[in-house]
Amino acid sequence: MPSTSHPLQLVNVTLEYPDGDGTIKALDSVNLAVQAGEITSLVGPSGSGKSSLLAAAATLVRPTHGLVLIDGADATGLGDKDLTALRREKIGIIFQQPNLLPSLTAAEQLIIGDHLRGKSVKAARAKAAEMLDVVGLGSSAAKRPHQLSGGQRQRVNIARALMGNPKVLLVDEPTAALDHERSYSIIRLLRRVTDDFMVATVMVTHDTEFVPLTDSVATMRDGKLTPMLTTV
Questions:
Q1: Contact 34, 63 (CB under 8 A)
Q2: How far apart are CA 119 and CA 117, in angstroms?
Q3: pLDDT-derived band at 111, boundaries 50, 70, 90
Q4: CATH class of 8-97+167-230
Q5: Per-residue pLDDT tens digits for 175-202
Q6: What is the tens place of the pLDDT at every residue in 135-171?
Q7: Which residues contact 199 (CB under 8 A, 6 or more apart)?
Q8: What is the spatial distance between Cα 156 and Cα 232, in angstroms, rounded to a whole number?
Q9: Domain locations in the chain?
Q10: How far apart are CA 130 and CA 124, in angstroms?
């Protein structure tokens, strides 16, 4: 049953890829539900299916079987145009590498996304300033990527993902290229924006040290997801 208290729900999701004469089952009957205001850590060995789960949750791939529900809407039943609109309006994606455009300032990295959402430049500029303040970069709006540290670029990445007021936040290894101090500050920031914006956050991470800062942890292995455990 779709639930808006769980903005992200995966129901019996199976994802298969062709492999010669057979298939590879990247996801095997995965069930996942994340509440608004909660972070679920997703851990597991390389090749276990973590990236496939994130791609399915982001509606970037269609599952072979099962349902992906975003804010109560069945994404698997949408056409490409409606699916793109759902992704733009409901899902924020934070990639491992920020992939910022080198010629744009921090503020412009955010404004361009709101332009695609049909917002006016004035409104987008005001929202960008607000989001950069949220991530602690209000004074760096005019800086370009080469003028920012790795941690600051990741903060721009987070701010950009929040611009559309998403219901779901999907985060892929946000600390992979950062030292311990910057990693901790990024996870604390993700904790704060999850609480403040009441998004349902799934974070793929290799660094189990930060798992206690999240609400639950689930482990992927061979395409299967273990039942979630609540962190203490």
A1: no
A2: 6
A3: very high
A4: alpha beta
A5: 988 899 999 999 999 999 999 999 999 9
A6: 999 999 999 999 999 999 999 999 999 999 999 999 9
A7: 7, 36, 37, 92, 166, 167, 168, 169, 193
A8: 30
A9: 8-97+167-230
A10: 10
